[in-house]
DNA sequence: CGATCCCGCCACATT
DNA sequence: AATGTGGCGGGATCG
């Protein structure tokens, strides 16, 4: 039979082999030999077959040799076909037909037919997902290879990944034991925990103060990081069966990489990880330098891993569109929560919740960011060179010991990112237009948004959706919202900032924020320096998470409905898309925003200047700070997001979007304020947190909790990214800090300043807000706009609330105020994508916090989805808050 | 042209 | 030394 086929095919390329033979199908096969068969070699190509029928192909493909062996062994049954097992006939004839007919065309299977993903599917098809405990299935690599008609090498690729997830374990030399997915969730849980620890912790570190960091850093680093490096993967528990014995060998990078890759997804709030980010994160060494080649290689491996994971149904390919273009990314579609089983020691569960945003966030800049980013990525990587000056420097300095290196790397990455951001910022600043305030904001929004960077879009979206939102307050919304009166002020333009907005930024390395309108940016720039310093350590840590890049995604459009052009719509669409899932996230962003109103406001002029970025970072130390930041972010994000999300989710339709858009526009118009601020991105992406806050203050928006923090009000907030370490700063316009140039006084509100740092104190974060944010409660004054009520946040639109789960509310964040909002997002959709984000998980914790604030209820909702635990952070916050109070 | 990623050389590990 | 493993990256394909 085979021969038969062969003959047909024979003709050409003998070359490799493609073994496969149909015959086997029968399945018989007796034993498998451990031996390796040989390659099959020459298998010409079979011809035709439909791609689909991979199996067929395979089979057909098989070389005679293979067959023989196979026969001996047994053949497998092809997956799909498999059943048929026997019937070679069918195959053959099939082949025949094909050959006759199509032969030419089909000829070879086409690359796809030979893809690792397909091969993996076939492989998986051979074994039950949930094998009976009783049956222990052993897998002979040789056998499988021959059956599937591929080289053994390819099987290793598959098995290594499966092994990393404990679906199989190596028993002996050519033997693997098939476990199936019984333990998958546990494994994932373990990975999640590990991921959080590893990446998360790092992040956490950052949160702490620098000092602490440092020392901790060292320690922790070792601890955590190490594993990554040194340790082979985590092995989870069981070594399982067999011998994993020895594991010695180097840790196989593929296995480790696979686990790390999975961890990134599990830790990511959005569950979306872009390849480049993952690659950066996974590249330990070389931080700075990192060759391009290295990066490329890493990406290749990631594709290998991704193909297997895709076959397992754990991830799927998506595209994140950034400004510049779309980037390949993968979205986790596997289980997110892992209840029980595992025990994680860690206690908290990381899980799901992750963060809300985080990551990347934001970056607003579309272009800018993108640009920067790109550079970073590419060039930077390759070259070493620095993409950014700042970055480089940092980087360069950092490297030191190996361990450190790692850190360094991260740091460097982070740094780079930061640099990029800065640049962006600067640019933004420069260009007001671009910058527009909004842009950044978007970030806040949820993940999805995140994804997209475009801020504007975001806003619009939000508004659109919810006009009603109460959120308005939310900062997040802020921009959008009309509610804020302040905004209005400007109206258009101008800026912004308005009184409210306060602004600020902090620089941390990582983060940036911008404010919209307003002022300038100086600040930010300045900051960096500082930041740099501080950052390092932080950065390093931060780095871990992918934060790095954070890329934001931009949006491109895409959306269907989209009208793309409009920005808004686009944005919305994007969002919607997200939900859908597949769709690429693209975001569209409008670059220009929408325009309108917002834009105007910001417009360049005002805005630009206005915006400053601030950065700060919080320090790690104080927990509070971070939290605050987080909260802030959350809030903003949340608000937006939540609204968006829900809506989106609910409506995915473009149409709606459109309408929404309109609203938005209007709103925007109304609110001019928005612009306020923005965002931040951390460089790190994941890691850090960054954030931003809103600029505006809408009063309501921020408010946060007012309660608690009175001071805070803040409009903004930021958080430090991991990287950041320290910087703190912030200014509010009002306050004016020195830093900021904030000139304007617009803000005035000065009040804002309050931040109470005290409470927070520690850390960081701070924020500042200008105006006052409202703190509702707390603050005494409401600064500027009083109108806003406070709480806005709380309310989120119902919808949102739901979706979000209300999260927000509670959030403690106080600092920010809005915390409320923030929270949220997370869960509801897990989907959101964030491309870059990585770290999210941690965030969640932060968010959670609940304790503090308040509403339990909200929390609960959230909880439902995920678990949240109060992370330490949260606790801290709480504490802090209390203290503050 | 960038995204994918097949293919298989070759080094290192194990037998 | 033979064979098992698997890092790695050239370069072909795909979209």
UniProtKB/TrEMBL annotation:
Pfam families: WHD_E2F_TDP (PF02319)
Biased composition, class Polar residues, residue ranges: 343-356, 864-885
Keyword Manganese on entry: no
Organism this protein belongs to: Corythaixoides concolor
Comp. bias regions, Basic and acidic residues: 65-77, 644-663
Alphabetic keyword roster: Activator, Cell cycle, DNA-binding, Nucleus, Repressor, Transcription, Transcription regulation
Transmembrane found in the keyword field: no
Protein name: Transcription factor E2F7
Gene: E2f7
